[in-house]
Amino acid sequence: MISTPLLRAMRKASLAATTALMIGAAVAPSFVTPALAQGPESVANLAEGLLGAVVNISTSQTVKGSGGGEDENAVPMPQLPEGSPFQDFFDEFFKKNREGQDNGGSQKVQSLGSGFVVDAEKGIVVTNNHVIADADEIEVNFSDGSKLKAELVGTDTKTDIAVLKVDPKAKKLTAVKFGDSDKMRIGDWVMAIGNPFGLGGTVTVGIISARNRDINSGPYDDFIQTDAAINRGNSGGPLFNMEGQVIGINTAIISPSGGSIGIGFSIPAEIAVGVVNQLAEFGETRRGWLGVRIQPVTDDIAESLGMATAKGALIAGIIKGGPVDKGQILPGDVVIKFDGRDVVEMRDLPRVVAESPVGKAVDVVIVRKGVEQTVKVTLGRLEDGEKLAEGEAAKPEEDADKGAEVAAASVLGMTIGELNADTRAKFGIAAEVSGAVVTAVAKDSAAAERGIVAGEVITEIAQESVSTPKEVMDRIAALKEQGRKNALLMLASKTGELRFVTIRMD
């Protein structure tokens, strides 16, 4: 028989337990993890349907000269533990890979990469440019063991993309489609298929680790970062979403050893699709071109321009004969929006311009002397613009009129002189450059900190032209009276290339 005190204690314990269960039931849903928190249950079905479209790219190149170094694209011998059961396999593979040196000193160098079929009817295959660069022969190897010779349709070094073509009548091909890389989020599952170390179709799975990565490999860097294992030989292979769509082209890794450490980079489909379509249709790219030189908007520059925040791309120069050479956009303008797309950082502008069709009329939102305004611009073609820019840079320098007297002034750690025949000759300044020349820079001065050197020419201060030492002095004095902390200077090099710097005036 249970005593009354004990019964009461049991009832209290039961009530406490019931309350705890109710609280737990109420709280539990907030801690429930998604069904795929530990990864997809299996990607076997997905991989099975995609392996046929992913190919191995084998290239060969004859390198003349004895004792030459190995091709940087050639697959390196992996470092294996002593006594590894794979040692014999790799020894045999890499022995074959490096055969071909003749008695005359020429060597046939082979390299391996990956690719994928995007058009089965036309036989279009996509890979990286660096996989097939300088190749004498290109061969596409399929997962069923068949092989086809490939011809090079076109390449783009700026995005490291190449398009190949095989004979679609020689084999029934399987193709994959590009997906929307913009919809991919950090943490989404992805799958890579490629040819690491020449091993053939290899499937790895991981997640998107980061987006919009700039690794300084080209002007349009906007990589997807993934921890899916990517090694040498995976270059040019596809990165799939869990729907089997290509959302990236695997192209680079960061690794001290040459093997995967979980930091791989893929060209997003958003960038790749336009390049692939243009290469397939024209054999070359046809990018939009604005005809400007740009630099970042720093906090100091933003303050000097009266901008609340540092954003956009600062126009440092206009290319003569370019789309905006008639004054639509001027040096010192800041582009904050292009064709409806925000320009947050300097690197955003080249990419959105390049993705725009040649000849398209677009609205460009700029900040000019603190005032936001919209200008209409018709885009040129980048490939034509590059030739124009090269010709402009190659123009010979001419002598200016002689006989002017040199007047000097000292300001912000700089000695400023008149730009005349004597100073042009002394510093080798081109005839088309105008302004006030910097003849000396004091050590440890504000100007020296900003990298200003003797021979550069001050053309504008706070977006107003200057041509004499006195005008430089007057502009600096006026800015100080306005309470400005920094002076924005537009400087020209001896050849006329422009850049902006800010100098502290306190």
TrEMBL record:
| Pfam families assigned to the protein according to its UniProt record, in alphabetical order | PDZ_2, Trypsin_2
Top-rank lineage group of the source organism: Bacteria
Q: What is its EC number?
A: 3.4.21.107
Question: Keyword Lyase on this protein?
Answer: no
- What keywords tag this UniProt record? Hydrolase, Periplasm, Protease, Repeat, Serine protease, Signal, Stress response
Q: Any idea where the PDZ domain is?
A: 279-370
- Main site of residence? periplasm
Any idea which positions bind substrate? 130, 160, 233-235
* Top enzyme category: hydrolase
Reactions listed under catalytic activity: Acts on substrates that are at least partially unfolded. The cleavage site P1 residue is normally between a pair of hydrophobic residues, such as Val-|-Val
Q: Cite the active-site annotation.
A: 130, 160, 235
Signal peptide positions are 1-28
Please give the SMART domains that the UniProt record associates with this protein: PDZ
Single GO cellular component term: periplasmic space
Q: Which GO terms describe its molecular function?
A: serine-type endopeptidase activity
For region Disordered, the annotated ranges are 62-81
Biological process per Gene Ontology, one example term: proteolysis
The record's subcellular location field reads: Periplasm
Alphabetical list of InterPro entries matching this protein: Chloro_Bact_Ser_Proteases (IPR051201), PDZ (IPR001478), PDZ_sf (IPR036034), Pept_S1C_Do (IPR011782), Peptidase_S1_PA (IPR009003), Peptidase_S1C (IPR001940)
The record's similarity note reads:
Belongs to the peptidase S1C family.
**What NCBIfam families does this protein's entry cite?**
degP_htrA_DO
Q: Please name the PANTHER family in this protein's record.
A: PEPTIDASE S12 (PTHR43343), PROTEASE DO-LIKE 8, CHLOROPLASTIC (PTHR43343:SF3)
Q: What is this protein called?
A: Probable periplasmic serine endoprotease DegP-like
Q: Which organism is it from?
A: Aminobacter anthyllidis
